[in-house]
Amino acid sequence: MDMCCKDLAEKLLLFRDGDLPEEEVQHLREHLHYCPPCLDLLNGYDEVVEVLCRLKPVKMPANLCESMKERLKTECGGTPDARQPEAASDGNGSEA
Amino acid sequence: MATNTTIDELLNPETLVDRYGERIYRLARRMSNSEADAEDVMQNALIKILRNAASYRGESDPMGWIYRITLNEAREIHRKRKRRPAVSLDNLPVDFDETSHPIGVTDIAHRPERFAMSTEIDDRVRMAIDELPDGYREAVILHDLEGVPYQEAANLLDLTLGGFKTRLHRARMHLRRRLEEFWKSVDESGGTAATDGA
């Protein structure tokens, strides 16, 4: 199978993330063997993803959890039954 | 389909924050330039979730719905802030030449084979993410930082799967270029970048 670099750009994303189907992995490996630009592209992904993975994690401030609960109780009242849905949401997983 | 248990969790401030607060905060913080903005985004999103939970009829795992609300709140606050213009990705080195080979991809000779993350690198990467156009920034945050799968992230950004991958591809190449510049500057300064995160 003759692979074109343009087609491969998308597959490299999947390959890098381990999501490329096994039968395509072999073809990709063969292509990478004789195509330095694609290999370099893959190395670029590796580099970026590695750095992103190593960014310092975001942690919620310790006191924010409790203070947020208090704010919500103040903003929205205490009884769920009293709440009315806003028009902003269709309630089907999409929100305007 | 959402169960009564899911809806009950969403309707109760205690369980809503305990169960989903951390992820809402993380996304809000990554989308915001400051701690204060992240808290505003989180609070606005939580209020909206509470007020709309009773009518929620989506998936049993409401995280997609929650992410969408959080994204929209973050965009709203982002719009109100004066933000420097994002870089153009039109000329990013992600195109292909007439032989269909990727062009503009430089070698990575400047990258140390083994590098330790430092506060400086961390800051540079965050700045590079922040200068991406909004849709590209969101793609990186959702997939690369929050681990949202391709299809789900594409849905959140109202993109086709292919469109999302293209966006992510370009965003990563922009980040790579910024990293190259950073490694080069480290080389030119005698390799003195702090490595406090080894």
Describe the structure.
The complex is a heterodimer of chains A (96) and B (198). Chain A has helices at residues 5-16, 22-34, 36-53, 64-76. Chain A has a domain at 5-53. With 96 residues, chain A is an all-alpha fold. Chain A is elongated and about 65 Å long. Chain B has 198 residues and is mainly α. Chain B has two domains: 4-80, Rna Polymerase Sigma Factor, Chain: A (Orthogonal Bundle), CATH 1.10.1740; 85-198, Winged helix-like DNA-binding domain superfamily/Winged helix DNA-binding domain (Arc Repressor Mutant, subunit A, Orthogonal Bundle). Chain B has eight helices and no strands. Chain B has helices at 4-11, 13-31, 35-52, 63-80, 119-130, 134-145, 150-156, 161-188. Chain B starts with a helix and ends in a 10-residue tail after the last helix. Residues 103-110 of chain B have low confidence and may be disordered. Chains A and B meet through helix 1, helix 3 and helix 4 of A and helix 2, helix 3, helix 4, helix 5 and helix 6 of B.
Rounded mean pLDDT score of chain B? 80
Unreliably modeled segments of chain A: 79-84, 87-91
- Quote the distance from N terminus to C terminus of chain B: 45 Å
Count every beta strand of chain A, where a strand is a DSSP E run of 2 or more residues: 0
Mean pLDDT of chain A: 76
For the largest beta-sheet of chain A, the strand count, sense and barrel status come to:
none
Characterize the largest beta sheet of chain B: strand count, sense, and whether it forms a barrel.
Answer: none
Structural class of chain B: mainly alpha
Helix/strand structural class of chain A: mainly alpha
* Number of distinct beta strands of chain B: 0
CATH class type of the largest domain in chain B: Mainly Alpha
How many DSSP H or I helices of chain A? 4
State the assembly state of the protein chains: heterodimer
Helix content of chain A: 55-70%
Hey, roughly how much beta strand do the residues of chain B contain? under 5%
Number of domains of chain B: 2
Largest interface summary = A-B, 48 and 68 residues
Backbone CA Rg of chain A = 24 Å
CATH homologous superfamily caption of the largest domain in chain B: Winged helix-like DNA-binding domain superfamily/Winged helix DNA-binding domain
